[in-house]
């Protein structure tokens, strides 16, 4: 989708911050993950309202060879 490419382009060109609002199942995570596959360094923070989405992201990215962590209230001490 064009909007996914535009989000990824901003990341890759380091053109500024990105706020993306899209409905459930529209592929927001793909727009955020795409630059990770193309960049060698950097940190990317994705805020998700559901812990399960964070865990799914870590699992998916691990299969692609990309290190990630999911931080939630469960980790607070």
Any overview of this molecule?
There is one protein chain. Helix content is 47%, strand content 0%. It starts with a helix and ends in a 14-residue tail after the last helix. It contains three helices and no strands. It is mostly helical. The mean pLDDT is 81. The longest helix is centred in the last third of the chain and has 13 residues, at 51-63.
Oligomer kind: single chain
Shape: globular
How do the helices and strands follow one another from N- to C-terminus?
Answer: HHH
What is the terminal separation in angstroms? 41 Å
Radius of gyration: 13 Å
Structural class: mainly alpha
What kind of sheet is the major sheet? none
Average pLDDT figure: 81
Helix content: 40-55%
What's the count of strands?
0
Proportion of residues in β-strands: under 5%
Low-confidence stretches: none
Tally the helices. Answer: 3
Protein traits:
ATP binding, P-loop_NTPase, 77 residues
Task: Summarize the entry for a quick read.
47% of the residues lie in helices and 0% in strands. The chain is mainly α. The mean pLDDT is 81.
List the helices and strands and how they pair.
Blueprint: H1 2-13, H2 28-38, H3 51-63
Helix pairs in contact: 1-2
């Amino acid at each position: 989708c064009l909007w996914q490419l535009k989000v990824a382009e901003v990341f890759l060109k380091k053109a500024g911050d990105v706020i993306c609002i899209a409905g459930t199942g529209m592929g927001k995570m793909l727009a955020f993950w795409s630059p990770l596959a193309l960049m060698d360094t950097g940190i990317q923070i994705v805020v998700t309202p559901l812990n399960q989405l964070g865990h799914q992201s870590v699992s998916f990215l691990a299969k692609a060879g990309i290190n990630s962590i999911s931080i939630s209230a469960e980790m607070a001490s």
